UniProtKB/TrEMBL annotation:
Keywords: Hydrolase. It holds the Pfam family Abhydrolase_6. Transmembrane segments: none annotated. Residues 64-272 form the AB hydrolase-1 domain. One of its GO terms (molecular function) is hydrolase activity. Belongs to the AB hydrolase superfamily. FUS2 hydrolase family. It comes from Streptomyces chiangmaiensis. This is Alpha/beta fold hydrolase. Residues 1-20 are annotated as: Disordered.
């Protein structure tokens, strides 16, 4: 599955004026460059929505696009929670990757998902946001890194945060990753994913294999980059974030979080608030 140009959303599905769109939450279907419908939601920010004004530390023209992990979707409680914290720092766009939730298609586990993220970023810009930041978790972390490396014009990002992201493909060094590979590569696993985890997984192997996150990181500069990883991550040990940071010496900022596990479930509100503050400082 090849990676081509950025996805483009269906313009007719959104209201054209930023002032109109920001009156309240908005739900729509975006369409990627390869024709996959992507379920997406927009929130102008909890303080703006509830009080009509932005709080201190909130950037009026900033949108934060949240890229969830594998088997997540925009309706999952853990995704809504992290989005709710980030909404204190700017507007938030959440979406479901292909094969997840209300989106169409099948998951390619980090390959064509770059199209989905590009469509979400472009949508945020169409709503009037001059600054757009991507925050990705696990699989979504690998996607935001690969997306940022491509510098896609209207679908590009002004800063990027990867939480619990892998550095390289086909990693099987932990029991959770061995289980995930069984889920993706075996027919029985894909059936379990579809009916047990609400995730539709594509049966085809990558062809060609997309650039890995560690190959993508050097291409992200000068876009600000934050890598966040827990020292108790059961999926990807600490050599993954260290590899990512070493691939961009002097550019990437690395936070190794004591006691933290994996992805959204392990990202407590205090950590998300720190990420929100970093986003405002770098995007601003």
């Amino acid at each position: 599955m090849s990676i081509g140009p950025a996805g483009h959303m269906a313009r007719s599905t959104v209201r054209p004026k930023c002032e109109t769109a920001r009156r309240g939450p908005l739900r729509t279907l975006l369409h990627t460059v390869d024709g996959v419908p992507i379920d997406a939601a927009y929130d102008p920010g909890s303080f703006v929505h509830n009080t009509g004004r932005a709080p201190s530390g909130h950037l009026e023209d900033l949108a934060i696009v949240v890229a969830h992990g594998f088997t997540g979707d925009l309706e999952r409680p853990h995704v809504r929670r992290v989005a709710g914290v980030l909404a204190h720092y700017g507007a938030v766009v959440t979406f479901s990757f292909r094969g997840h939730g209300g989106s169409g298609g099948r998951s390619t586990v980090g390959d064509r998902e770059v199209y989905d993220l590009a469509a979400a970023v472009e949508w945020a810009r169409s709503l009037g946001h001059a600054r757009v930041v991507t925050v990705g978790f696990s699989m979504g972390g690998s996607v935001v890194l690969r997306h940022a490396a491509q510098h896609l014009g209207d679908a590009s990002t002004d800063a990027v945060v990867a939480v619990s992201a892998p550095a390289r493909w086909y990693y099987r060094g932990t029991a959770p990753m061995r289980r995930l590979h069984w889920l993706v590569t075996r027919r029985a696993g894909r059936l379990l994913g579809r009916y047990g985890l609400r995730t539709r997984i594509h049966h085809r192997d990558w062809d060609p294999v997309p650039a890995s996150p560690v190959e993508s990181v050097p291409l992200i500069a000068p876009t600000p980059l934050l890598i966040v990883h827990g020292d108790q991550d059961g999926y990807f040990p600490l050599d993954h974030p260290r590899m990512l940071a070493a691939a961009a010496p002097g550019h990437a900022e690395l936070w190794l979080e004591p006691g933290m596990g994996h992805a959204e479930h392990a990202s407590d509100d205090a950590l998300m608030a720190r990420i929100g503050a970093w986003v405002v400082s770098r995007a601003g």
